[in-house]
Structure formats: structure tokens, C-alpha cells
Amino acid sequence: MATSARRYSQAVFSIASEKDEIDKWLSEMEDATLILSDNDCIAFFDAEQIPIDVKLEGVKKLFSKNIGLIQNLISLMITRKDISKFLEVSNIFTSMADEYKGIVKVDITTAVPIAKENLEKITKKIENIENKKVVINENVDKNILGGIVIRIGDKLIDGSTKNKINLLSEQLIGHRN
Question: Phi and psi (nearest 5°) for 149?
Fold first, then answer.
């Protein structure tokens, strides 16, 4: 069953793709997300004691530079008491836009930064495997000791030294029994 955040995202994506305005919506969603990621802002729009017309006037002022449709989305979500789900709506919309554009986001974690030429080789290899444009998010985590951890959507490739040591340890302990 679809959540309300997914339904909002699908409706917005349908409008954006129909009007060929996906990039415009992505930009608007990003702007709105910056504002609505503030807990005080969400608390204001969620507050039962504040009249709806005051909240909607606040939307017009806060989002005056944004396209009318994003204002309408935010106003609708406030009216339906769903504004706390806006960040989820934005994330789902972004994922849908990436899928539509053939983009896959990849998280790469290593113990030390990867040399630029090696990162380019990894990117090309993943693009060939996934048959999509790859956007890399590089992370450094000394706790993995060495190697590389790659997350592509819900797929995880753990080639970290820490993981190899843990697997070896499990095998050694398993062989003792």
C-alpha cells in the first residue's frame, strides 16, 4: 500500500514530467526542503492552535519565489496535516527523477580518500554494470580499516578489510565447534 508521501510524490512527478519541468521541480523541492527541514518551521505549520489561513499566508511569504505548484503542494500538505512528510516526499520525488533520467546514486566508503583516476575507473565500471549514469557520494571511514564498501540502491558490496576479518573470524570460530 502506498504511503501518502509516495502518493504526493507520484502526483507531483506526473505533473512535472507531463510539463517537462522535472529539473525545475527538483530545484524547487531543494529550496523548499531547506526551509522545511527547520523543526520550528514544521512545528509552526503543524500547530493545531494556529489558524489555517495564517499558515497558508506563511506559505505565500516563505515560498514567494517558488513556482505556484510547489506552494500548492505545501498548502495541500498543511491542510491535510501531512507537512511533516515533506522531506520524505522530496526524497521520493528525487529518486523518481533520477530513475527517469537514468541516474543511479552510489555511496562509496573507503578508509582513505580515493585517487581521482581510481574513482573515475570505479565510476565507469559501475556505469557499465548498471547501464546508467552514476553519481558518486564518496565517504571516508577509518573504521573499515581498508578496502572499499559500495552501496548501489539496496545492493551492498562489502570489500572492506573489517568485513573480511569478521568473516575469517566467523569461519575460524565455526571450525572449532
Answer: -120, 125
Q: Residue 169's CB: how many other CB atoms inside 10 A?
A: 10
Do 90 and 111 lie in a common domain? no
How far is the C-alpha of 114 from the C-alpha of 139, rounded, in Å? 9
CA dihedral 117→118→119→125, nearest 10 degrees, is 110
pLDDT digits (tens, 9 = 90+) for 12-26: 999 999 999 999 999
Separation between Cα atoms, residue 165 and residue 144, nearest integer Å? 10
Instruction: Determine if residue 172 is left, alpha or beta; phi over 0 gives left, psi from -120 to 50 gives alpha, anything else beta.
Output: alpha
Angle in degrees, CA 42, 53, 94, rounded to 5: 40
Same domain for 22 and 86: yes
Q: Which amino acid is at 49?
A: Q
- Model confidence pLDDT, tens digit, residues 66-81: 767 889 999 999 999 9
Name residue 61's amino acid. Answer: K
- Tell me, yes or no, whether 85 and 111 share the same domain: no
**Does 17 lie in the same domain as 34?**
yes
In this structure, the answer to whether residues 30 and 114 fall within a common structural domain is no
pLDDT over 60 (residue 167)? yes
